[in-house]
């Protein structure tokens, strides 16, 4: 990673300003940030506690850049027509596979992708994860530290066995999930190749979560998927396009699975509105739309704030800007330790506002 | 001028007479009116210490009706529920006030029963005061001053542009 000096005062000023602008409803691109609810038509959220709460979490989420071009496109789509199309989910699934293949070799390289011949619509990757949990509930789940906190939180709530990969060897009876690029710092995890080798040797399955792949660059994801331990991989539009609440995702597997999600798919009762929306986006925008459009913005804002660029176009990495008190817990979940990851999306979206108030240099 | 908003609850009467209050800030009488659930007025702030006084203006002995054993059967009274100064709800800090009667001073009393008045010292800017007081009381907001400065800076930035 490039060596840079974090400009914490600047980061704080930007965070406070965006947080207050959200409550004041004067963002260039309004909208919510996860854990950072904005003002609304009925309510201006300007009181100190509210603004401070948003300030603390303003860079936290993994959500997509609210690209105005995409927002405008999405708002004009007539989705209802897809409810009447019995083939839309299948078209969506095929569209996804072609879409991934079209860009393969540019920003990322997935070798032997064609081995994953079975596609299944997933109501967000969370549905794939839940099915993975259920079907492997007697195994011990393994993740790297800094992985998407939802896994650990759900396993803890369900009383499933789990352990960080760093804390114990991979053993027979384990099962792994790894995001790639890795959720915490927007690059391929440095231990992933080693983990795949171990899992292959021990017959331990790994689910690879490619949710950040469309926004990844510099071939940080350059891998061979032929290892037999990699049986399923997941993709989503949620972190790439502003459709995170539409739950548009896909699971690809080498062999057709028999689980609740596949059953719904086979019954043809999957969400046609979501599939239709995904299909329309994929037909009109390339997978690397955001990386093409915002790569320079990432460099600019990393320079302004003294953060390290990651290989995901809307992420930067650096020390956390907010001093947590002893009594403060992690946002949303005790397993959410993604404080060092900065989502730069709202800086790209609100660059005119930030320029107007003198925070863009 | 700054705004101050009050909420009152449990407004009781013993006869047809309604309770009346007067709001005084820094020795300036700002309002005298029948007690309603929501009341507001405006005041001229002093930088630093300010004194809020809310007087129970029309309470008399005859407003308290008792039985032969001096048990109160009916009374004219009310309770202060909340105070918002310059848009900032001072929340629990309202309990830092005192109810003053001819006979005694009762700390942390929001009940307007006997004839007397409620008084509370506060500082302007009130947001700064609430953050400081809450931290002094609970010790759980060590960054309050920096956060306050950043908040006011962001406010200025957005309102100047």
Would you mind describing this structure in some detail?
The complex is a heterodimer of chains A (361) and B (161). Chain A is of the alpha/beta class. Chain A has 2 domains: 8-68 and 289-356, no CATH class; 86-284, Aspartate Aminotransferase, domain 2. Chain A has helices at 8-24, 48-57, 68-76, 80-83, 88-103, 124-135, 149-158, 192-202, 260-266, 272-284, 289-305, 345-349, 351-356, and strands spanning 109-111, 118-123, 140-143, 162-164, 174-179, 206-209, 222-224, 230-236, 248-253, 308-309, 315-317, 341-343. In chain A, the strands form 3 sheets. In chain A, strands 2-9-8-6-5-3-4 form a 7-stranded mixed β-sheet, sandwiched between helices. In chain A, helix 5 runs parallel beside helix 10. The radius of gyration of chain A is 20 Å and the shape is globular. Chain B is built from 2 helices and 13 strands, in the order E-E-E-E-E-E-E-E-E-E-E-E-E-H-H. The two termini of chain B are 23 Å apart. Chain A binds chain B through residues 12-13, 16-17, 19-21, 24, 26, 47-48, 51-52, 55, 323, 325, 327, 356-359, and chain B through 87-89, 127, 131, 140-143, 147-148, 150-151, 153-155, 157-158, 161.
Task: Describe this structure in a few short sentences.
The complex is a heterodimer of chains A (361) and B (161). Chain A is an alpha/beta fold. Chain A has 13 helices and twelve strands.
């Amino acid at each position: 990673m490039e060596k840079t000096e974090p400009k914490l005062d600047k980061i704080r000023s930007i965070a406070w300003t965006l947080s207050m602008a959200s409550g004041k409803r004067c963002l260039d691109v309004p909208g919510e940030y996860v854990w950072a609810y904005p003002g609304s038509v009925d309510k201006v959220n300007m009181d100190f506690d509210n603004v401070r709460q948003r300030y603390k979490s303003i860079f936290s989420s993994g959500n997509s850049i609210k690209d105005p071009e995409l927002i405008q496109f999405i708002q004009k789509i007539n989705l209802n027509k897809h409810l009447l199309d019995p083939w839309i989910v299948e078209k969506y699934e095929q569209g996804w596979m072609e879409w991934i293949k079209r860009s393969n070799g540019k920003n990322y390289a997935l070798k032997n992708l064609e081995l994953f011949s079975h596609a299944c619509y997933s109501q967000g990757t969370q549905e794939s994860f839940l099915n993975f949990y259920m079907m492997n509930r007697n195994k011990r789940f393994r993740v790297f530290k800094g992985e998407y906190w939802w896994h650990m939180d759900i396993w803890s709530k369900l009383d499933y066995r789990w352990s960080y990969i760093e804390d114990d060897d991979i053993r027979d009876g384990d099962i792994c999930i790894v995001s790639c690029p890795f959720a915490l710092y927007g690059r391929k995890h440095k231990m992933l190749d080693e983990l795949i080798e171990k899992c292959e040797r021990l017959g331990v399955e790994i689910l690879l979560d490619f949710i950040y792949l469309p926004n990844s660059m510099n071939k940080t994801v350059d891998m061979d998927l032929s290892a037999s331990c990699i049986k399923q991989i997941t993709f989503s539009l949620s972190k790439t396009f502003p459709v995170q609440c539409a739950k548009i995702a896909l699971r690809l597997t080498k062999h057709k699975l028999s689980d609740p999600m596949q059953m719904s798919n086979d019954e043809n009762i999957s969400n046609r509105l979501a599939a239709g929306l995904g299909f329309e986006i994929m037909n009109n925008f390339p997978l690397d739309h955001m990386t093409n459009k915002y790569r320079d913005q990432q460099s600019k804002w990393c320079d302004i704030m003294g953060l390290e660029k990651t290989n995901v176009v809307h992420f930067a990495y650096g020390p956390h800007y907010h001093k947590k008190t002893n009594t403060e817990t992690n946002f949303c979940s005790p397993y959410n330790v993604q404080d060092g990851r900065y989502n730069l999306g709202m800086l790209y979206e609100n660059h005119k506002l930030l320029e107007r108030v003198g925070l863009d240099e | 001028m700054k705004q101050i908003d009050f909420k009152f609850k449990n407004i009781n009467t013993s006869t047809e007479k309604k309770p009346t209050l007067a709001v005084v800030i820094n020795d300036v009488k700002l309002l005298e009116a029948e007690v309603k659930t929501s009341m507001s007025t405006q005041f001229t702030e002093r930088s630093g210490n300010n004194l809020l006084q809310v007087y129970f203006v029309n309470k008399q002995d005859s407003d308290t009706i008792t039985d032969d054993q001096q048990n109160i059967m009916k009374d004219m009274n009310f309770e202060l529920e909340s105070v918002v100064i310059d848009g900032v709800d001072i929340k629990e800090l309202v309990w830092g006030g005192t109810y003053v009667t001819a006979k005694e001073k009762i700390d942390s009393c929001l009940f307007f029963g006997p004839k007397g008045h409620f008084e509370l010292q506060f500082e302007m800017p009130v947001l700064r005061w609430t953050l400081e007081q809450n931290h002094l009381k609970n010790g759980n907001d060590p960054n309050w001053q920096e956060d306050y400065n950043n908040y006011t800076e962001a406010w200025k930035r957005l309102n100047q542009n």
